[in-house]
Design brief:
With 364 residues, the chain is an alpha/beta fold. The protein has 13 helices and 17 strands.
Length: 364
């Protein structure tokens, strides 16, 4: 039986096989490769992989029983390692490969154009050349984009709302991990004049450079920081959030786990949701659309719709300490009026979490 005759890819991003194929599970052990772009020690990466495996188990597929899962963990800011691990996975000839990040997907697609590749966390799949379009990806790759480019403008707006004194914003990123940098930079720079903000690039190539770069920006009056989401800044998020707090540099982040570590505010997708089939809190209108990827009988990844995300907004109480923050709730309320493309963000739940000490706002 051909690979395409039994694989159902990530549908909101877990994997399932159609019923006809499940009846033939005993035929042979199925194989899935997983290429993670973050270290094995990263708790968020472990959570994403665990969510993926949990969905498989709910569908009757258990690693070691009727399924073999081979996972490789790449070092951040090490493209050579990523390509070596991608080559290893492709050599195993799995039935499908789950790719966590943009660098991982790039490495895999350089090694294979036949094995289905399902990416979980990619900012710009079209610009990166992974898919031709969201409705019809083409090629052998598909699944979730984690953002709209206009989200970068919202980051600029939120930072200015919550820290009105900011007149210059440094963009922290690792060039080796952000081949998609312009996806964020272009709309961020375009939005900046509307908020009387100057944009400064602050590339970091190694974790040893983090403190000097952040300290340099903090010494400049009225400075703020935009931490571009990439494998490097995510891997070293403890160091980044600790340094911004130490130097009292207002910063905006793309993912909630930065805020949970004490970062000032975050606005973005819950990444673990991309590795689940039907995560709690998915929107009804989103569920009514065709699944982002259903590689079923007669279908190939190029025919499977890629999907775009919902977002949540988090402000930390303790992250505000030491900053001149005057209008935190104005910024929160403004989130509900942002409508772009097919994304409608509205406040659904506002609550304080005692453990994390955060204000959390979910989209409806």
């Amino acid at each position: 039986m051909r690979r395409r005759d039994f694989i159902t890819g990530i549908a909101g991003s877990a994997v399932a096989w159609p019923l006809a194929a499940r009846a033939q599970q005993a035929d042979r052990m199925r194989k899935i490769g997983v290429l993670m772009g973050w270290p094995e020690s990263d708790p968020e990466a472990q959570s994403e992989r665990a969510a993926f495996i949990h969905e498989l188990q709910k569908l009757g597929w258990a690693d070691g029983r009727n399924l073999r899962i081979d996972t490789r963990w790449a070092a951040p800011a090490d493209p050579e390692s990523m390509h070596r691990l991608a080559k290893q996975l492709v050599a195993l000839q799995p039935d499908l490969i789950l790719s966590q990040s943009t660098p991982a997907t790039t490495a895999l697609l350089q090694e294979t154009r036949t094995i289905p590749v399902i990416f979980g966390i990619v900012a710009d799949p079209i610009g990166s050349g992974f898919v031709a379009s969201f409705p019809r990806p083409g090629g052998n790759a598909t699944d979730f984009a984690v953002a709209e480019p206009t989200q970068a403008g919202k980051w600029a707006e939120l930072l200015k709302e919550i820290a009105p004194q900011v007149t210059r914003v440094a963009v922290l990123f690792n060039p080796a991990m952000t081949t998609f940098a312009e996806f964020w930079l272009k709309p961020f720079k375009a939005a900046a004049p509307s908020f009387a903000v100057e944009v400064i690039l602050a590339p970091v190539h190694d974790p040893s450079e983090l403190e000097s770069v952040i300290a340099t920006q903090a010494r400049e009056p009225n400075s703020g920081l935009f931490v571009m989401p990439d494998a490097f800044t995510i891997t070293y998020r403890v160091e980044v959030t600790s340094l911004t707090a130490r130097y009292r540099l207002p910063a905006v982040y793309g993912y909630r786990f930065f805020a949970e570590l004490g970062g000032l505010l975050s606005y973005g997708e819950d990444l673990t949701d991309n590795f689940r089939s039907h995560p709690e809190g998915r929107k009804a209108e989103r569920a009514s659309r065709p699944g982002p990827c259903q590689v079923r009988v007669g279908n190939q990844p190029q025919d499977c719709q890629s999907a775009r995300p919902n977002h949540s907004f988090v402000i930390t109480r303790h992250g505000r300490r030491g900053h001149r923050i005057t209008t935190p709730f104005t910024a929160a309320q403004n989130v509900c009026f942002w409508h772009k493309a097919d994304m409608a963000i509205a406040l659904h739940d506002v609550r304080f979490s005692g453990k994390a000490n955060i204000i959390h706002m979910e989209p409806t």
